[in-house]
Predict the 3D structure of the following.
Amino acid sequence: MTRCEELTERMPAVARAEAHWDTTDLAHLATCPDCASGWRVVSSVAALRWATPYLDPDQMAHGVVQRLGDERRRVRLSARWLGGAALLATAAMLALLLWPRAERGGAELSPVPVFLPELDSLTTPQLESVLGTLDAPLGSVRTLDAPDLSGLSDDQLSAVLRSMEG
Amino acid sequence: MNAQPDAGAPSDVELIAAWRGGDEAAAAELVRRHTSAVARFLHSSGADRDELDDLVQEAFFRAFRRIDSWRGEAGFRAWLVTIAGNLLRDQWRRRKGRVLLPLADRELAGSSTPEGELEADEAADRIRAELARLPRLQREVFLLRVQEGAGYDEIARALGTTSGAARVHYHHAVRRLRERVR
């Protein structure tokens, strides 16, 4: 470390009155323009501490603590609000999950109206007959859309096929 | 570099622990202890007198809000100063880099004569203007070292650099200011 660097290192402590220059240091400062101007800069900046506008620490503390308190209260309120909202959301979810199931259970017991106008003109025995066919095994009942072809010969069946193909 | 509390008074670390536990009085004590240093740093860095109060309060507020990020490696004051430095940088960015300095701060104490006082005001403003023109790291290292008497190790921890780099920044700052203020 050069003499100039060494002095520059010590400048802050001397400027803050925590150390002092000895006679050799002063002699160097008197003959070294760089160190002399460096010392002027450092001591001027150190002196700025006395030029800083005064801020009342008690007033500052009051202001900061008040803001921090407001912030804490806001956070607490938000947490409560969020907790309430979460509770409501959970209740709504449960209601959605459970209520329709109960409704569905009820629906299974009650008849669902099916409107088939073509059945309106039938008498009760005829309706019972229709119902009977609904419960019968497949193929045991003749219907119009599926005629019973079991009695037809091969030639007749071929004729039917030809007629379907046009 | 932490302010030396009176004998028997709780240390910064103890006060911070108390604040973390919800003790508002501990926060108030920390603010009282470090208000002058934060104001000094901001004012020396070029903050306007009119905005100083708000900036200092905001620096403390932000510091307490993220107190968990302070791990005690750097002194509390050095850490506060870096937060204040960030605030000032944000403010300058909002003003698109313009540094506004008062032409003459009447509260600066200079000489007993009006002429002497004016000269002292102008010299102080000039120094502040030159400090504001320094690269941020150089300015913060320089101010922490000159005004707060911080060592390179502590400065390095607060600013996230090495102590060797902090030393170089200090010497560069001295040289730049020397050339500009000459």
